[in-house]
Amino acid sequence: MTTTGTVPEEIIATADKYHVTAIVMGKRGHQPWEQVLIGSVSQAVLEASPIPVILLENREPKSV
Q: pTM of the prediction?
């Protein structure tokens, strides 16, 4: 699929088009200080979407 427009708006429009029940997105955070922050696209979708947004974070497994 190819679309044109701003990324957050297109994510929301595509989710609406396909009648999804939730938008699942990855959360960025490559630096320690970014642990509190999320990416700008994720933030924009989270703020603008009428559809629930679930943010996932990739964490390194803890050694036992």
A: 0.75
